[in-house]
Each structure stands twice: as structure tokens, then as C-alpha cells.
Amino acid sequence: MNKIRIVIADDERPARSFLKNILQEFEDVKIVGEAEDGAEAVEMIKTVKPDLALLDLQMPLASGIEVVKILRKSQLPLVAFVTAYDEYAVQAFELNAVDYLLKPIEKSRLRETLNRAHERLEQNDFRATESANLKAAVAVYEESVNKTPLERIPVRLRDEILLIPVSEVVSVTADGELLHITNLNGKKYTINYRLKDIEARLDENKFVRLSRSAVVNLEMIAKISPMPGGTYLIRLKDGQEISSSRFQSRLLREKLLKL
Length: 259
Description:
Blueprint: E1 4-9, H1 13-23, E2 29-35, H2 38-48, E3 52-56, H3 64-70, E4 78-83, H4 87-95, E5 99-102, H5 107-121, H6 126-145, E6 152-157, E7 160-165, E8 169-175, E9 178-183, E10 188-192, H7 195-201, E11 207-211, E12 214-217, E13 221-227, E14 231-236, E15 241-243, H8 246-255
Parallel strand pairs: 1-2, 1-3, 3-4, 4-5
Antiparallel strand pairs: 6-7, 8-9, 8-12, 9-10, 11-12, 13-14, 14-15
Helix pairs in contact: 2-3, 4-6
């Protein structure tokens, strides 16, 4: 039996190590790359051309879903999404025959994924079938998730809990394990939360990620200035200036800067 060449993509190092340790117990596996965010996953998949990509559903810069959307059909390997329990994701993946692994990952369940990968790789048209299934699953998932975007962000302030309307948020920036939320009045609130988790709950038609550490409200963008290297400097209505990463600049052009 040929070895399955695998890329692991997860922004949490312990999660990558845990998955890698289980995979190394299987003789029919060769790990050919590890990525710690979606942008790195895209470039790695293009470069090493794995048979199977194990993609964390929520990652900085680009989610597992966005990785699949960015790659062309000819570049797309077999994909299994790795996720904490997500009702919408499970429903979408099961409905469209897309493989997924729930955290914490069980060895026996991972073995099933590898067995299915072997079977699919033996099919001549696996890439076309996989691409169609993934496209359908992504559509179902995004439709479900977008039905319930976050409308208020609870912030604890001493003995009170404030509810910050999402419509008034200018930016959300990460500083280690903390998030700083700034509103149009210039007030800044701090919560203990991960940027990728709050981004997943924001309306993707109203918020855009600019870099590993910043998400902004599209309605609060005052000016976008091109910078050397294909990046942008984004000036917000409250005076903040945030640079977009090269990878997010590419997504920004596709999403916002084309008629």
C-alpha cells in the first residue's frame, strides 16, 4: 500500500503535535508539511502537492473553508476538516460526503479517514468528485452560519456586563490572548477571546480580516492606500491606520476592490 502524503494545518501547536503523533503511529502515512495558518496552508499545498490535507476549520488569515475556495480544482488534494463540534459544519459535511474529524481526535476515527483516502485516491476522477463535494459543503455551511451572525459582543467591565453592538465596532485587534474592540466613539474594550473565533461569528459581508491580528468593519473604512509589495494601508473613520498582510491584500482585492 502506497503511503498517503499528508499536510497538517492548525494554528495551535499542541493540536498539530497531537495529530502528528497519532499519524506517526500509522505505517501508511508520510507527513510532508505543517502549516500554522490558512495562508501558509495554501502555499504549502501548492508546493508539496499532498494526497490529503487535514485542515482546521478555523485558522488565522484564511479558514479551512477559505483554503479550499482559494485553491484551484487542479491543486486540490483530498480534504478532511478538523473542528471542535460545530452543528452547521457537521451537517454540511455529512450531507455532501466531505470527511471531518472532531476534536479531540480519536485514533480509530482518523484510521477511517485514512482508509477512505486510500479508496478515493484509487479513483481516476477523485479530484473532480472531491471538488464538487467540497463546493457543495461550503455553500451549505456558509448559508447556515450566515443566518445567525453575532449582533452584540458581551464585555465584562468590573461588576457589569456591557453589550457592544457589532454595528458600532470599528476594529477588533489581537494582542496575545486578548482582543481589543474599538467603537466609533473611540472607546476601547478588552476581552479574553481568540480572534479567529470571533471572526467566525461576525457577518463576513460586513467584516474583513486585514492581517493575523486585525479584523475591521467594512462600513468603517475611510480610505485604502496601495503600498509597495502589493499590500494596503487602511485608514478607518476613527483615525486608526492598519496595514493589510500580503495574503489578506489578495483576498481584499477579490472581495472589495473589484467592480
